[in-house]
Amino acid sequence: MTNNASDWSQPKTSTALLTDQYELTMLSAALGDGSAHRRCSFEVFARRLPAGRRYGVVAGVGRLLDALPRFRFGEPELAVVSEFLDERTVDWLRDYRFSGDIDGYREGELYFPGSPILSVRGTFAECVLLETLTLSILNHDSAIASAAARMVSAAAGRRMIEMGSRRAHEESAVACSRAAYLAGFTATSNLEAVRRYGVPGAGTSAHAFTLLHNTVAGPDEAAAFRGQIAALGLGTTLLVDTYDITEGVKTAIAVAGPELGGVRIDSGDLGVWARQVRAQLDDLGATKTKIVVSGDLDEYAIAALRAEPVDTYGVGTALVTGSGAPTAGMVYKLVEVEGIPVAKRSSHKESRGGTKRVLRFARPTGTAVEEVAFPADAPAPESGGLIAHDLLVPMVRGGEVVAGLPTLDEGRDLLAQRLVSLPWEGLKLSHGDPAIPTRFVG
Amino acid sequence: MTNNASDWSQPKTSTALLTDQYELTMLSAALGDGSAHRRCSFEVFARRLPAGRRYGVVAGVGRLLDALPRFRFGEPELAVVSEFLDERTVDWLRDYRFSGDIDGYREGELYFPGSPILSVRGTFAECVLLETLTLSILNHDSAIASAAARMVSAAAGRRMIEMGSRRAHEESAVACSRAAYLAGFTATSNLEAVRRYGVPGAGTSAHAFTLLHNTVAGPDEAAAFRGQIAALGLGTTLLVDTYDITEGVKTAIAVAGPELGGVRIDSGDLGVWARQVRAQLDDLGATKTKIVVSGDLDEYAIAALRAEPVDTYGVGTALVTGSGAPTAGMVYKLVEVEGIPVAKRSSHKESRGGTKRVLRFARPTGTAVEEVAFPADAPAPESGGLIAHDLLVPMVRGGEVVAGLPTLDEGRDLLAQRLVSLPWEGLKLSHGDPAIPTRFVG
């Protein structure tokens, strides 16, 4: 197994109907009036970050580039769209493949309000069809990675297990595991993410296994622990809070001895219990037994446990729901037609016309200062002694995904570097402004 | 196309890895110590509703029953789990199919805190494996349907188009469309939901199409409208807010004449604009032209527009994010082992042991009064002159999905009936208690 985004064993089904109907009716109208073949440029950006967030994390690019070649209309897809489309449009779709160019921010890159994280160029017809699929993937994965990165910061180096699958759509869950790993989580409970993306797997036992060892004579926690250790070895983590935590820990060490790998606490005041259980374990000689805590943790709860003897955090609901921001709110906007910048003027929904390039400027120490977007055909702004990072990298050329794009592990490393580059306020959990400003030139 | 949940053309891939690793390690331990074959009963319930909500809507049952027969381990799935499982467990999984019984609340049924909406019975081994998949589907779809139902109530009979796909994971989006339709939405923008579930499709045009008709001479909204009408006919809906709404409406009627199907407003103060545009349309003789509004609508914004001349609401982000509650928070708990009720005693996470049945009592007028859960082997509580509805209906027997379960359309009808049965406070949008209490007996 590898972490290469394109290496997964799900059947390569068509992605063409993961699309809003209006993209196809627009196509029909554009083919009819001759505007379909105009050269266009679309950009993806977020108008704002979720309230109080200081940065966003780009995620999903690998999944998008995997879905793109499968955006083809076979006969089953054509049968659906021919219900509302004219024959000319259906014929055009039969031969459709995207043949344009895409540049984008790499996975794991930071973004800020207005950052054009994806630039899609080609004819109107070929670009307009990709709107929904592109946004679905980037909005979902970026929302999860952006929340996950804050949790990883709050955990300050401790192990993080993503265990939120049960609180998310079953396929969204797989993408959540991937995004969490990108953001620095250590492992996932989700086996499909293990298969598809090579994310390390984790998990040992639930309350059900302890409750299963219940007879007419009553509960038998020791029997459950013996069964688990026999199957999974002394390195396993025993769940000690089914009945009484102090009794559970005592039973765990009585059964396993002081070499037990870990205990998990999933309820109660986790800080209080972590301290108490750590003392109890140490008293019992189990000084190396790890403490795993789980149960409604979010970035704030994780941060609040920083002074406690917690070794591993298990995070579920807050991760897969983006900790209050389940979608990144990115939009896919037409910015240029045949070289002419275009922009709508609806109130509060302005977009900035023209294809753009973006540089992020950093001090020689590495600290980011600002992001500057400027017309792609204009000279780059002066750096003024700062170091410039070109953020939009070629991803698709002539419809083909370019070779050598970052793997998931490389994206994970990139994000870790980028977080270090933020001004120190940028990593604060409290509400604030974007960590660096974005300036639009020209 | 039909609305039958099992009629969709996606390849029938294995769902077995949409699972948390710990279910498989528990299986291994239980096979090892002989507890795997104990007769068990698991129940799915929500400990609480999202803050202030008065009811929840059960959704996803059809999807779950479609996924269940595909919960099989083929060689690709076995290769993944053999990385961490012993050979005996892998061999057991090779032959796995669920052979137990499932009863559940029907899709479209209401639920309240504690309602055991699904009862899964069989050996520990066969039931424990289904936890994650079951919860993923029910938690996601019920969260969306529960939010959608409130929006439909707020819309008071007006047309509702679900258009949130771009704000959700691409597969979650399809399930969101399905859940919204279950809850009473009229149509969806999502073409895969049209294909898979027979939800009516909708959609005409975005700002990009208007902006596309931009030349060196400047914008040409009239050309865009002409192109759209030529392709889609006079019944189409023109998007009039790309530049100036009043000008847009004027141009729309100039191009289309008073028989134009509709205009859409996607920005600005929707109530003010709806009134102004209605007056303008009427002045222009376009008295039957409908007004569609969209743009960050949630149930409260929809309700606030009740007095305005809006014909159709388009709802996106708030729908697919469950309007602040993106997951239903249901759990899957072991409640009985070999006839013995079991329950954990962790603080604040108590569960109620024993397999249950549930009756909902209603007055002869149809108004629901309370839900009563009681031991499945005990006699039903006295009705006291009320009408009793048995809520847990047989869904799977001996591993086979029973015939004749409600279709998506039947679930939609059921929910519409059930909402009428709530005490009137139950339909209020404001925060409050569950509409009816749930009582646990015995």
UniProtKB/TrEMBL annotation, chains A, B:
Pathway linked to the protein: Cofactor biosynthesis; NAD(+) biosynthesis; nicotinate D-ribonucleotide from nicotinate: step 1/1
Keyword Disulfide bond on entry: no
Post-translational events: Transiently phosphorylated on a His residue during the reaction cycle. Phosphorylation strongly increases the affinity for substrates and increases the rate of nicotinate D-ribonucleotide production. Dephosphorylation regenerates the low-affinity form of the enzyme, leading to product release.
Keywords associated with the record: Glycosyltransferase, Ligase, Phosphoprotein, Pyridine nucleotide biosynthesis, Transferase
Cited InterPro entries: Aldolase_TIM (IPR013785), N/Namide_PRibTrfase (IPR041525), NAPRTase_N (IPR040727), Nic_PRibTrfase-Fam (IPR007229), Nic_PRibTrfase_pncB (IPR006405), Nicotinate_pribotase-like_C (IPR036068)
Enzyme Commission no: 6.3.4.21
Nicotinate phosphoribosyltransferase N-terminal domain segment(s): 17-139
Limits of the Nicotinate/nicotinamide phosphoribosyltransferase domain: 160-352
Regions crossing the membrane: none
Gene Ontology MF annotations: glycosyltransferase activity; nicotinate phosphoribosyltransferase activity
Catalysed reactions, as listed in the record: 5-phospho-alpha-D-ribose 1-diphosphate + nicotinate + ATP + H2O = nicotinate beta-D-ribonucleotide + ADP + phosphate + diphosphate
Family the UniProt entry places it in: Belongs to the NAPRTase family.
Entries under NCBIfam families matching the protein: NAPRTase_put, PRK09243.1-5, PRK12484.1
Function: Catalyzes the first step in the biosynthesis of NAD from nicotinic acid, the ATP-dependent synthesis of beta-nicotinate D-ribonucleotide from nicotinate and 5-phospho-D-ribose 1-phosphate.
The protein, known as: Nicotinate phosphoribosyltransferase
